[in-house]
């Protein structure tokens, strides 16, 4: 009976990453193979597709062969969560538009793959009465409630690969190289990529740096006969001085920045004070792209299966996460709006310091 | 003062793997950078070097540039732990030979990188009064006391990469492909590589298979219009019938095996019963080799730093491990002789089944 | 006008390889973008699809996103070229079956991607009056008339990667490792992969080996303090003794081989005579699989464009090849049935010998 | 007899690349294995080491295990060839300094690995009477006299890999992505990386672009339903207008550029005129780094062996090159100061156009 068919909406939201397809495949394979009659409706370009009814009915074969493919077959966008509370250009309430599509299509639930902003919107929709299962997507690894997000380790591989390449050129030319890694608010990606590729100095938002300490670390390497230094800098790395400012003061100060990014500023100061040649490399968007690494494919497949499990059992309002190797279901309201930061006192940071890595501080 | 120099012995034992050098680098960088006066003595080819005094005094630069290099700069061997209790060819007691070298060189402690057999010997030496810090090396991930061993994720990458390559050829020719993955006693590597690369059937020692269920799984794919099936088989995969035998009966049965390995036996039966072309690929030793993946490099670096931390604080008799993301120190006596198996009831296996993966059983 | 539509058949034949999709994409993009009205008919599983009319009308989007994907979206098979002259199981003449489908569909020409056997059949069809454009597919690089075939360099990458991985384990354990590389009749793949990965000994069909020379080369390394040796052996490597036999004598001798493959035989002899531990690794089908390397993607794209160019200009009866960096069109009759062998006197072999690589000979 | 020892100087000059070590290993293995008594003197940091006598006597083991390692074990610098004719800071003539070291050390010849500038200096030294063998190093592939330079294909792999990664993110977000590839004067790297990774538009110095044609190509894709476009732009890409200026006029115009690089300028114009979101990625120095690809390792090993062959036979004044698959020796005076450009009428460009790739022109 047609009536027995359960219709599941699905969308990918926010910046893309390597494991969106692998995760959706996990959900789909588990639903289609459950022996129950599921239909998956894929919305295009994230919440935008949900608002304006841009969707297609997915076929099982649409999810075949995408385990190793980066990007998202559904497309994604950063809309509209930054302006969620403002009406759209036609004056419509965005949440109402989404609810309308959801109801019109007779969806039983929505599967949402997204990062911080997307989880917030997911929670909002959940509070509005929609059935939601969400999945923790982000190369930033900054979602509260899960030890790891999918996309993170794949991005670590890309970023570490960039530093590996830079390593040989830095060594050969005896230069200081700064590699700017994605991460405006948190430093997970920079920390892991930096340790993985033997960076000498790692600067992350959670540990404001002292430029004197950075320069000292470079000079210490020079004095010990090393020809070069590698510095992994998060996009959001911040100096002690700037970290002490109020939000307003900081905004004011950064109105007309003297450098295109924090890396150039740091590089300029190092070159000025050590006389050594400094180069900056910014891999940028390539950190989100390419084929997911096997570690991430396992994680994504498990996440996808676990999301299907929730759906099969009609348990809604959760984000799927992982903790200590086991899948966990975290209430959406606990996740929304919270960031998971690198703890400067953590085991990981402590070991990095033992290895001789400087975080740009004097302690 | 020369007297203040602390001499640390180091050796790598058992089958090689991708992160031995990265781990030793972690220990060395942390010791040399500690501000204390450490000297590292490297023994050649594992415990053999310790028995017969084959060693070299390491220089800090010996550990430079090896973070991404597979293998071990010290060499390794599987001797002598299989015959630890028998005298050597000259009639000497092996443990006594090791103790003698240790004392003659005035070592403060021994850093041992090894898997199961090696940890057992490490514990034996610890019980004999030597100061030991050990590190969990194995692509098998079967060491008790740590969630993960170094080498494991790198081997997963290699094995998953092999299956990825096989995937395109299986698809194009419409064949059944069996890939035999390392693991005589445990199935971690097969399980992770299989899930990572979208294997349809996974056979591991911990879950004895029923050949009827395997054939049914292949036929189910054929009936659903899939042209091919991929089967990841652990070296130690075992049928229900064989698993029911006593050790003695099994040994007797396997005296003159009809097939070179379990994969060929399974392949033969599938081809016989489905008529479909079956091919077997055995990547073998390449699973231990090549450059470690970034994930493993982070893990190894942390392990190395943590081992150095124990040494700096003169805390001996431990294997360094990781649990829930944090470093743990596990008493050697708790580790020795215990294997960590895949739990058939675990979250991971459960999710794999949700994904439609058959473990060759009818449940 | 419908009448103006030009219908082009396409098929992939023989063992699959990494660049079949990339090459077909090249043909398709160039045809569809030519401003003329082309329709591409894809036959399934090689000539079999042509014989039995298994085909689908391709859409432009079928060729999107496949540049980096291994395998073939059309499927392939080794049928029927080995038994081309025998009737099929229903007693039908195979060539007649193919001609019938060709005519029934109103094809203007056939694009055939294949290796040696497939080119022979392509020529046969051309002589029968069909319009043919063929493309040189093979990881063996043994097609006459083109400096390089697509698939070759990708297979070199895979095979060299296997030897790279083996390198670290050989070094760490001090063993002799034999890696058996695909190539029954020609040694291109073994030669290039061997030189690329620093093999010490390379054995190929074109240069019959003397086991005494092989053993001597291993011992020379041992005597010079190297702990290990790597031997790259082509599947079709042959000893001087066997090379001197007639075809009949050789067949007789190999009726009940003592070893599963030539590598095991060579390995056995080395271990027997040097006492050193020898291991054999056979990567097998993975050499055909995985993503094509960028070099091959360029070659394939160029080949595809050049094939389209021939079609657009209605020039038939050619295989597209490359010579000295430029595309060439080689008459099919010149290609069919000819193999391109490694010349033992070539620049490449000479340089390999200068590098100290032994080919298992005493000269 | 000491007298019989032949002393060979070696240096790497200019920007580093992936195959410097592999090439030096090729020279060294061939010399050491020749049965003659060679000593290799390695100069540090290029010609600088030769000027000031910074060198070390190399041991055979220094060249072991470096086949797959990027960078250069000798270090390199861009000095002094840009200011070859000016005296150094102490007022000394640079050529004289080099000749003095050469003679003082009793060198028989110098092996020079370098690109354009370095070959020019090599020729200068040759004209001054020094014995020179040079090797064609550059990721730019712009050296006259050789079909291919070492480093080029490895850089193609890196650059194509970057575009591959960008591809998935461009697709998912429906953006125009510009990837800026190294190459100030020539477009080989951009052309090959662009074709290899399916770029839609390729802009190189040899084919000045018309911004209207670029915009039209983007719009054509949009109109045909493609969500995204990928543009590979060489650092030295130039507009038709700028290409028409005199050197002086161009210099004047570029004094205070409105954009950090050509990519940003092009991106700005596309965004302005199409309204589509445009992003720029500049992989930069990573294109020179990392492990060489197997293709390049074969080429480098052959080049190295051929250079050794020249030395063994005391034939000096040549750069080693490759032509039509065979090694060639090109007189240094023919190489010096000449660049090899992409021919807009070449087979390669023609095929790229057939594939639908726009070069930013209306023809």
Report on this model:
4 copies of one chain form a homotetramer. With 363 residues, chain A is of the alpha/beta class. Chain A has 2 domains: 6-150 and 292-335, Rossmann fold; 153-288, Phosphofructokinase domain (Rossmann fold), CATH 3.40.50.460. In chain A, 39% of the residues lie in helices and 16% in strands. Chain A contains 13 helices and 11 strands. The first copy, chain A, has helices spanning 20-32, 47-52, 94-104, 116-127, 152-173, 188-196, 211-223, 240-243, 247-253, 262-274, 294-312, 332-335, 347-354, and strands at residues 6-12, 38-43, 55-57, 109-114, 132-136, 176-181, 201-203, 229-234, 278-281, 318-323, 326-331. The first copy, chain A, has a 7-stranded mixed beta sheet, with helices on both faces. In chain A, strand 1 (6-12), helix 1 and strand 2 (38-43) form a beta-alpha-beta unit. In chain A, helix 5 (152-173) crosses helix 6 (188-196). Chain A is elongated. Chain A starts with 5 loop residues before the first strand and ends in a 9-residue tail after the last helix. Chain A binds chain B through residues 26, 29-30, 33-34, 67-68, 147, 153, 156-157, 160-161, 164, 192-193, 195-198, 293-295, 297-298, 301-302, 304-306, 308-309, 323-327, 346-348, 351-352, 354-356, and chain B through 26, 29-30, 33-34, 67-68, 147, 153, 156-157, 160-161, 164, 192-193, 195-198, 293-295, 297-298, 301-302, 304-306, 308-309, 323-327, 346-348, 351-352, 354-356.
């Amino acid at each position: 009976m047609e009536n027995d068919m359960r219709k599941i909406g699905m969308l990918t939201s926010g910046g893309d990453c390597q494991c969106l397809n692998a995760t959706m495949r996990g959900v789909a394979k588990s639903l289609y193979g459950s022996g129950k009659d599921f239909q998956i409706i894929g919305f295009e370009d994230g919440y935008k597709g949900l608002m304006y009814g841009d969707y297609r009915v997915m076929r099982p074969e649409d999810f075949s062969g995408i385990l190793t493919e980066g990007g998202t077959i559904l497309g994604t966008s950063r809309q509209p969560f930054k302006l969620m509370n403002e009406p759209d250009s036609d004056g419509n309430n965005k949440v109402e538009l989404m609810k309308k599509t959801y109801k019109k299509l007779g969806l039983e639930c929505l599967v949402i793959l997204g990062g911080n902003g997307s989880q917030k919107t997911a929670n909002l929709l959940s509070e509005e009465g929609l059935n939601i299962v969400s999945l923790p997507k982000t190369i930033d690894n900054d979602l509260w409630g899960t030890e790891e997000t999918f996309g993170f380790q794949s991005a670590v591989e890309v970023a570490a690969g960039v530093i590996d390449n830079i390593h040989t050129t830095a060594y050969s030319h005896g230069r200081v190289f700064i590699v700017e890694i994605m991460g405006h608010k948190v430093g997970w990606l920079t920390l892991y990529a930096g340790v993985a590729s033997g960076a000498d100095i790692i600067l992350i938002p959670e540990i404001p740096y002292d430029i004197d300490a950075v320069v000292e670390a470079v000079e210490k390497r020079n004095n010990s006969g090393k020809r070069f230094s590698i510095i992994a800098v998060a996009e959001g790395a911040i100096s002690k001085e700037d970290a002490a400012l109020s939000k307003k003061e900081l905004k004011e100060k950064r109105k007309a920045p003297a450098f295109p990014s924090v890396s150039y500023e740091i590089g300029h100061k190092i070159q000025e004070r050590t006389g050594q040649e400094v180069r900056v490399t910014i891999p940028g968007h390539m950190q989100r792209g390419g084929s997911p690494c096997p570690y991430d494919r396992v994680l994504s497949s498990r996440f996808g299966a676990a999301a299907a499990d929730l759906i099969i059992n009609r348990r809604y309002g959760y984000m799927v996460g992982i903790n200590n190797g086991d899948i966990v279901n975290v209430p959406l309201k606990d996740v929304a709006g919270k960031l998971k930061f690198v703890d400067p006192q953590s085991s990981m940071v402590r070991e990095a310091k033992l290895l001789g890595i400087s975080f740009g501080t004097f302690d």
